[in-house]
Design brief:
With 364 residues, this protein is of the alpha/beta class. The chain folds into two domains: 30-40 and 267-359, Aspartate Aminotransferase, domain 1, CATH 3.90.1150.10; 43-263, Aspartate Aminotransferase, domain 2 (3-Layer(aba) Sandwich), CATH 3.40.640.10. It is 38% helix and 17% strand. It has helices at residues 8-11, 43-52, 65-75, 88-99, 114-122, 139-145, 168-177, 202-208, 236-243, 253-263, 266-288, 313-322, 346-363, and strands at 30-31, 82-86, 105-109, 126-130, 150-156, 183-187, 212-217, 229-233, 293-295, 302-307, 325-326, 328-330, 335-342. The strands form three sheets. A seven-stranded mixed sheet has the order 2-8-7-6-5-3-4, sandwiched between helices. A four-stranded antiparallel sheet has the order 9-10-13-12, covered by helices on one side. The longest helix has 23 residues, at 266-288. The chain is globular. The protein starts with 7 loop residues before the first helix and ends with a helix. The structure holds 4'-deoxy-4'-aminopyridoxal-5'-phosphate.
């Protein structure tokens, strides 16, 4: 008897590798490997989550009406043009599942978010990987890769794992150059870390254009990664199609309550953004001052550090882990020479720099 055969394109998927929270020998370490908020969860969100725990016997509201209303009020978007999923990861999968299949092509940049390739292959579509421009998104390279089989373009802004950012003009130029039959997914997982003047215009594009989907998450600045709350905004046609394949009860009761409360804590968000801006800039300056190391300019809550000298990224990763810091070494994503490091607390950033400085000196 033969065992069930997975679809051949499924076996072509390299499983997602999450950021580590322990060392190889199981020690608990400071986690600077998954771009989470070092200040934890807003108090009001924790309280709302615990209160919601009084009624675990009921299914959550499948329509997520309260959270959609809160998002609509907060962002000025229409509540009936929202899709949601267990993390924005799921919203990305829903986009691929709704608009692409075998024989279709989906474009993403070479140093892009790992889930794009998984979401593409999962539906049997073909990933088309385009070159970067010094680690940043190259709009011309994306436009040059479009064929009549292209169904989706995935762009994260800021991008992960590079932290690079495309301006509003660049995003508008990308959209203007795409056929209307191609869905442009603008993944804004890190958008709350941008300064207001860096708005890339994604929500406005999604409001006015029939082929733009914006995705957002509560996992980063809102400090709710464990609760898996992601959402998307697009035209009624796009959203209506995506709703047909979403899981009926994407959010738990606690997740919805916590997200609504987190949305209301403007001070927590502003404080997180201020801290991130200050210590990202401090950290990048220190990295650029170390011989052989370079910080890719970042607008997110992490920095991609490149190693071109005697000290390798792998050796730096190992030394940081030994010192109690998990960072993200990404050889599987074509970055054996890079470490992605989340901006943590002041004390954490100072110690990371001390460890790297000592390792650079030791390596000579
Ligand atoms: N997009 C990007 C660019 C990300 O970096 C991440 C998180 N690593 C996500 C989407 C997904 O986040 P979540 O599923 O937690 O919403």
């Amino acid at each position: 008897m033969t065992a069930p055969a997975p679809k051949p394109w499924i076996m072509g998927i390299a499983p997602y590798v999450p950021g580590r929270s322990t060392s190889e020998d199981g020690r608990k370490v400071v986690k600077l490997s998954s771009n989470e908020n070092p200040f934890g969860t807003p108090d009001a969100a924790r309280t709302a989550y615990c209160d919601a725990g009084q009624h675990l016997e009921r299914y959550p509201d499948a329509a997520a009406a309260d959270l959609r209303a809160a998002l609509a009020a907060h962002y000025g978007v229409e509540a009936d043009r929202l899709i949601y999923g267990t993390g924005s990861d799921e919203v990305l999968h829903l986009a691929a599942g709704t608009f692409a299949g075998a024989g279709d092509e989906i474009i993403h940049v070479r140093y892009g978010f790992a889930v794009y390739e998984i979401a593409t292959r999962r539906v049997g579509a073909t990933p088309v990987v385009v070159p970067d421009r010094d680690y940043a998104t190259d709009v011309d390279a994306i436009l040059a890769a479009v064929t009549d089989r292209t169904r989706i373009v995935f762009v994260a802004n800021p991008n992960n794992p590079t932290g690079t950012y495309s301006s509003k003009d660049e995003i508008a130029r990308l959209h203007a150059g795409l056929p209307r039959s191609v869905l442009l997914v603008l993944d804004q997982a890190y958008t709350e870390y941008l300064e207001p003047e860096d708005d890339d215009g994604a929500l406005a594009l999604a409001r006015s254009q029939p082929n733009v989907l914006v995705t957002r998450t509560f996992s980063k600045i809102f400090g709710l990664a464990s609760e898996r709350v992601g959402w998307g905004y697009a035209s009624p046609e796009i959203i209506g199609a995506m709703h047909r394949i979403r899981a009926p009860f994407a959010f738990s009761i606690g997740a919805q309550a916590a997200a609504i409360a987190a949305l209301g804590d403007a001070e927590f968000v502003a404080h997180s953004r201020r801290h991130n801006r200050e210590w990202r800039s401090w950290f990048a300056d220190r990295i650029d001052a170390l011989p052989g190391l370079r910080a890719v300019p970042s607008k997110a809550n992490f920095v991609l550090v490149l190693f071109a000298g005697t000290l390798t990224a792998e050796a730096a990763y190992t030394a940081l882990m030994a010192a109690g810091y998990a960072t993200r070494w990404l050889p599987g994503q074509g970055l054996p020479h890079g470490l992605r490091i989340t901006i943590g607390t002041e004390a954490e950033m100072r110690e990371v720099v001390d460890v790297l400085r000592a390792e650079v000196e030791r390596a000579g």
